[in-house]
Backbone:
């Protein structure tokens, strides 16, 4: 294999004394297709900036093959100093590059080159930044959340463009479908370190879960082994002989390993997303009858009728500017239609998370943003909670309480706005692009929360996979004020838009229930059988006996003249050692299985009593 175009080795980097990367590696080869994944705050964007040469690591090595060109798309493009989008886009060209490429890309992405750079929206800036990095056809493209602020047609165009590109790609994205389409190799940043697997993103999550499950199993084994050794210290023979002194040293090593694993596990937080729910709404949430809306003669909604019932999951999709947000405002009576009428149901408590994320002042601290500047308590529904505890539910550290919002990452700001919205009691959620900047684990938790939510959800999103997982009904903007309604998720909307299918029913109700493919939990009345309880009692002694037997056999086989003196005995001892080691492994696995089952049952019982 040819040497890599870009290599990062043993990268260490921290901010304010807090380690972020503690030995991260990355290698990018010619025409590579790499996705960089990990939780918000794990260091993905930072590692990409190190790769681009924009951030210098505290330790480690960065090597770029002589002559290799790199272009970097940052998460929030900086257009400072440029008059128009065209001058910004062309600034990425190198001598000899074809300027016509800029104009063809601007046409494909619908970028107005004459637009003033200082006043454009986030979506316009993102499109111009894409033109800038794609135009020169570099050897390596480093793309940080390239689909943010793009609508579905633009995302699909970008997928095709990158698939045809000769550039090596390193991608950070929360869009599962985008990563599954393009990535052929995955690098996972986990607790400051990188783990690479030569598989595309489609296989990553299963591999990650297997890896974490094995780590958990290893931790359980280590705990049990320490427990047995502690028992030996208290009840065993004297520890003054040489062999027992070694056993004490081994116990100290086990304890040190346990501390290391505990510290590593502590760096992996888990969000505990909850939403404050009010009393149930009436069965019918809203009914729209032949509504119409136009601005300056341009039709936004034309003759739309729709009925929404409690617990419906409604997805709204369409290109940017087609009127998705306007449609939601019409349906919730925040804006009157030009003609037709909207009737809302009874007992509605509507909470909206809009695309602008409420525009909290960047100087506001995280704590004040959650408490509205009133003390140290957050009102979640009708209950008061300490702000630090509520912050932890959304994966914020206590020391971040006084951090200004402007210093948070995009993903952290996304979690903050979810925390603010979900604290307010609701039975109807209006979520306009809630998935922007969220990591994959938080998206999974948000999916579970919406699946369990007892109210009604309206979801505007360009995340195709998220739509398919959540919504039961899709409303598709088809242009010229026409909206089509179909049962299903994004795949059904795609067929509608491309003319490959028709709506499943008339342009009315959305009564289909959300799908729930999650496995059901076991009954809390489950208990260990007599056989299982007995095994838990006797297995520790059996494991200890096997360890003693293995030690004895290993000492015999270590004798330098054993084979010459007794070949048959040597082979018999080797066979016995293999059998004992296999039996030990089986018994440890069985003990671990039963211990985990016992802990699960005790947790379920405690939860049912609570």
Residues:
């Amino acid at each position: 294999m040819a040497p890599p175009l870009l290599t990062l080795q043993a990268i260490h980097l921290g901010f304010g004394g807090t380690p972020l990367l503690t030995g991260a590696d990355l290698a990018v080869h010619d025409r590579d297709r790499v996705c960089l994944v990990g939780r918000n705050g794990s260091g993905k964007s930072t590692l990409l900036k190190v790769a681009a040469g924009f951030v210098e690591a505290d330790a480690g090595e960065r090597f770029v093959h002589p002559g290799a060109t790199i272009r970097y798309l940052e998460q929030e493009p900086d257009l400072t100093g440029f008059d128009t989008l065209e001058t910004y886009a062309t600034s990425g060209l190198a001598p000899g590059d074809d300027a016509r490429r800029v104009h063809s890309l601007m046409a494909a992405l619908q970028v107005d080159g004459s637009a003033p750079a200082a006043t454009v929206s986030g979506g316009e800036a993102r499109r111009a930044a894409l033109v800038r990095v794609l135009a020169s056809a570099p050897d390596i493209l480093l793309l940080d959340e390239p689909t943010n602020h793009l609508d579905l047609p633009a995302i699909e165009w970008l997928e095709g463009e990158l698939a045809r590109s000769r550039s090596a790609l390193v991608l950070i994205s929360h869009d599962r479908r985008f990563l599954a389409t393009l990535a052929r190799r995955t690098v996972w940043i986990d607790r400051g370190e990188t783990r690479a697997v030569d598989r595309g993103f489609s296989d990553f999550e299963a591999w990650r879960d297997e890896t974490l499950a094995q780590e958990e199993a290893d931790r359980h084994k280590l705990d049990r082994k320490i427990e047995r050794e502690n028992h030996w210290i208290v009840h065993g023979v004297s520890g003054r002989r040489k062999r027992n002194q070694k056993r004490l040293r081994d116990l100290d090593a086990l304890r040190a390993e346990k501390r290391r694993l505990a510290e590593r596990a502590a760096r992996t937080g888990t969000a505990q997303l909850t939403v404050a729910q009010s009393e149930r709404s009436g069965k019918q949430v809203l009914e729209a009858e032949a509504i119409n809306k136009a601005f300056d003669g341009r039709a936004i909604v034309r003759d739309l009728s729709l009925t929404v019932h409690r617990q419906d999951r409604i997805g709204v999709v369409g290109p940017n500017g087609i009127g998705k947000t306007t449609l939601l405002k019409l349906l919730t009576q925040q804006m009157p239609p030009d003609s037709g009428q909207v009737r809302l149901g009874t007992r509605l408590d509507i909470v909206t998370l809009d695309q602008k994320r409420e525009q909290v002042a960047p100087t506001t601290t995280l704590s004040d943003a959650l408490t509205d500047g009133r003390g140290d308590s957050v009102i979640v529904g009708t209950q008061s909670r300490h702000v630090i505890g509520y912050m932890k539910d959304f994966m914020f550290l206590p020391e971040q309480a006084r951090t200004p919002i402007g210093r948070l990452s995009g993903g952290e700001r996304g979690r903050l706005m979810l925390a603010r919205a979900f604290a307010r009691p609701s039975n109807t959620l209006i979520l306009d692009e809630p998935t922007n900047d969220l990591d994959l684990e938080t998206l999974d938790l948000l999916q579970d929360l919406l699946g369990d939510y007892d109210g009604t959800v309206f979801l505007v999103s360009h995340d195709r996979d998220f739509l398919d997982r959540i919504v039961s009904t899709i409303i598709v903007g088809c242009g010229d004020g026409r909206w089509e309604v179909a049962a299903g998720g994004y795949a059904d909307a795609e067929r509608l838009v491309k003319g490959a299918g028709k709506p499943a029913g008339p342009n009315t109700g959305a009564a289909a229930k959300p799908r729930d493919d999650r496995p059901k939990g076991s009954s809390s009345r489950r208990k260990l059988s007599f056989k299982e309880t007995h095994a838990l009692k006797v297995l520790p002694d059996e494991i200890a006996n096997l360890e003693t037997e293995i030690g004895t056999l290993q000492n015999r086989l270590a004798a330098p003249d054993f084979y010459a003196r007794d070949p048959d005995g040597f082979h018999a001892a080797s066979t016995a050692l293999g059998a004992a080691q296999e039996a030990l492994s089986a018994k440890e696995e069985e003990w671990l299985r039963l211990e985990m089952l016992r802990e699960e049952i005790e947790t379920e019982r405690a939860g049912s009593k609570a």
About this structure: The chain has 18 helices and 20 strands.
